[in-house]
């Protein structure tokens, strides 16, 4: 059976599709979200789309402009910096938890990611490095078992995906962030919660510093 056209399930389906598109960068900040078009594309009612847009507005991913409808929310740089500061606390917590719970297969996976990250930086493959970066953070969240923090981080990261993507393409940025990720991985593999939390916080502090130098 396909997805229902109306009701709560349809609303949740629309919200999920749009949320993932925004998180993946497929819908840039300012992208217009037209109810009728989305209803036709996703084969749901306009009411389901409208309800989904309201949910995403509450999550900070969508904004409504008077007389112009809805669009993917544009996150100002100042707000992006505040989001990174929040991530610093949450990811520090998750890193500490991950260090406490990681088992040998988990450590082997993180070490393998570290090797691949080094290779990506050495060959100048920025996009591969960016994907590996995301995988490291995702594995740390999974290992932490902190579902509440993971949910909050998912929302926060979706809001600043455009800022993060631009930062990842900045010349020299991978060379700066690589040792920060290696420090995080080594602390988790060593089972050292305090060092893992510090490494995560230091990395996000570096992200905030780099973002603060942006021109937009």
3D structure, described in words:
This protein is mostly helical. Helices cover 74% and strands 5% of the residues. It contains ten helices and three strands. It has helices spanning 7-23, 35-42, 46-58, 77-101, 104-123, 126-144, 147-159, 161-168, 173-189, 193-212, and strands at 32-33, 62-65, 69-72. The chain has a three-stranded antiparallel beta sheet. A hairpin with a 3-residue loop joins strand 2 and strand 3. Helix 1 crosses helix 3 and helix 9 (173-189) packs antiparallel against helix 10. The chain is globular, with a radius of gyration of 19 Å. The N and C termini lie far apart (45 Å). The model has no long low-confidence stretch (mean pLDDT 90).
SSE pattern:
HEHHEEHHHHHHH
Q: What is the number of helical segments per DSSP (H or I, 4+ residues)?
A: 10
Largest sheet: 3 strands, antiparallel
Mean pLDDT, as a whole number?
Answer: 90
Q: How is the largest sheet built, in terms of strand order?
A: 1-3-2
Please state the CA-atom Rg, rounded to the nearest Å.
19 Å
Question: How much helix is in the residues?
Answer: over 70%
Counting DSSP E segments of at least 2 residues, the number of strands comes to 3
Portion in beta strands: under 5%
- Poorly predicted regions are none
Shape: globular
Structural class: mainly alpha
* First-last Cα distance: 45 Å
